[in-house]
Amino acid sequence: xxxxxxxxxxxxxxxxxAATLLALQDANAAERVRVRGTIESLSGDTLAVKSRxxxxxxxxxxSGWTVTGVVKASVADIKPGDFIGAASQPTDSGINGAIExxxxxxxxxxxxxxxxxxxxxxxxxxxxATVANAVxxxxxxxxxxxxxxxxRKISIPDGTPIVxxxxxxxxxxxxxxxxxxxxxxxxxxxxxxxxxxxxxNGTVPPM
Length: 207
Fold this sequence. Notes:
By secondary structure, the chain is mainly beta. Helices cover about 10% and strands about 50% of the residues.
């Protein structure tokens, strides 16, 4: 395949994934809601989701909506210089423990950089930053993450979900697939969104 086409495709994926990331990690929780769950059905632009707390959620997909795939990775894939997103919680050691980690494609470096509150677990935060170094220990590696104006150390316990992003399409929105969606909730309980992150090959988006 022509190298220019490959480069163009990679840039399009990075741009789409970056836009998805910014939408999914939108910090304005007062106006936006996050839906984590499993697809029950897709009819036209209406996505029925069973949320992880057992609720039925109807997601109305806006015109031009897009899909990003989420696939499994491993702690061995994380190297100094990588740009990652890590949700974490405080621990007794004083170093936050990771709840999940997303390894971003190189072209997405700097997207959504910073540290902000997160809602996946109580007292959790989301840190999008560059891996400065990694130190191994009996409790798993501890990463030093640097971002503009700050630094955070995060340990990664064994079993922590680690994923990366890839291309996906409407055809991947199948019943039983895990999804993570950020959108606006209406008074009738419906959610409208323009982006969907879907787990591929059985992956459950941990975000």
